[in-house]
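Expect sequence, tokenised fold; for instance:
***
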Amino acid sequence: MTAILGISAFYHDSAAALVVDGEVVAAAQEERFSRIKHDDALPVKAIESCLSQAGIRPEDLDYVTFYEKPLLKFDRLLQTYVSYAPAGFRSFGRAMPIWLRQKLHITRELHKGLDGRYSRRFVFCEHHESHAASAFFPSPFDDAAILTLDGVGEWTTGAVGLGTGNRIRLLSEMKFPHSLGLLYSAFTSYCGFRVNSGEYKLMGLAPYGDPIFTSTILEHLLDLKEDGSLRLDMSYFKFARGLTMTTEKFHRLFGGPPRDPESDLTQREMDLAASIQEVTDEAVLRAGRFAHRATGARRLCMAGGVALNCVSNRHLLENGPFDDIWVQPAAGDAGGALGAALLVWHQLLDRPRFPATADRMSGSFLGPRFEQSEVERRLCALDAPFEVLPESEVTRKTAGLLAAGMVVGWFQDRMEFGPRALGSRSILGDPRDPAMQSKMNLKIKFRESFRPFAPAVLAEHANQWFDMGKARESPYMLLVVPVARDHRVDGADFGAAGLERLKLSRSDIPAVTHVDFSARVQTVDRSRNGRFYDLLAEFENQTGCPVLINTSFNVRGEPIVCTPEDAYRCFMATGMDALVAGNCLLLKSDQPETAAEVAADHLRQFALD
């Protein structure tokens, strides 16, 4: 047996992943255990969870691998500070203490994180090699082009490569400070959202605006090349030398200072979101076309934070040269832990990959699970009243609650790896209810009303309800597709502007239909999704609709729930009507009022993002 532990840490979304004899057996983000959103600390609890799931001790590990090369990253920071000196001194002063205390001593920190019980080899991979490995090695393809795009690793901000058999090779790279990810994050910050977490919000805001600033962005901010690479005019950006993303020159170009994070959204932010999304779509398309020219491959694998932009992914699939695209479900830095482990197995140890009809991510259900007896024990410890349903009744009863208009917390099986809830740690609702989007956003998720919800659909019915185009499937919610025309509302007045467009019902499933008729779809199949598939099938049996709202089981500012205790507290502090944890059914009406007060106090710790 060969056991390899991959680790990502010290930037954001720290994670651990365990590969045993080439199989991905466990992976999880630290935030799920620490309850700190986007936790960047050494993932001690995630490591413990991964090892525990496999019954492995630290001393049993053969390799521990880190997702990037700290000294190379430190070189980039020093050279950047020197280039901009004396500007950037505050940023330099804030960064150096943690580098000198911790980040330059990664081996020491890893030893500590493993309780000093690991004494074998540490391997350090380059950041974009880890991304590329996470994209290709678990994919269902024997050979494929590889595209990685993010903010920045050591020096690289984007790369094109080729994966064949058990090898990956990066063919070209884009270097800091020229970065599509940082460009998108600059607009995220300017529009009043938090960098490294608010990019989803900017993407969701884009359909409310018009891309009137696209030409301004292309003429002033960057030179976009035919191969998808770009050069930024750094006089508009401050991220290389300061503590903010944009300069006064940027603000003058777009008519004023950045939006205050909690102020009302204006048409300017909506139009900026639409414009930077259009620029991103074009950059990703050009990068994809170049990857095809450089490799001759008919299929593409993607990773890096930009690969979580499911609008650009769809644009590339439908307008680009590839027959199929596979995106790593944990495409951000968390997935780097998995890529680093697989890189050691396949590339360092030269172990083969074997053909597979599906990907090797096990539906991305790679986190801890809680057996029925454990769920019951923990709920009893919370003095939570519940009913234990017979196995055969769980999906029937839950589907009935959903059909009656209730919002249900769904806590089942292994926790998902990556930013999406895929049917194990989910909040579910009826997509046919026109009021459900607003209800779930404002009373349950406590987030902005414009944020769209994703539909989960039985895979065999996906093409009837959505225009899937070239997409064979979308099991990880990484493609936006249009709702099928047969299910759209004809003759409605769509002349409203801005957020007023939210009030208009656009389809038979209005709660998951965005204002441009799009939806971030998850296709659900029996082999990956088990009980969640059965629930959807039962909901269809009761209602004729094979679609449910599926959003992550958390509130704004909180990581997705991990344990039964997390799930109960979130359930009690929100407007959810019921919680189904394993076979246990908890109705809000049966719960003690004191539990709601305690849960609300607990959730106040999470800072709004």
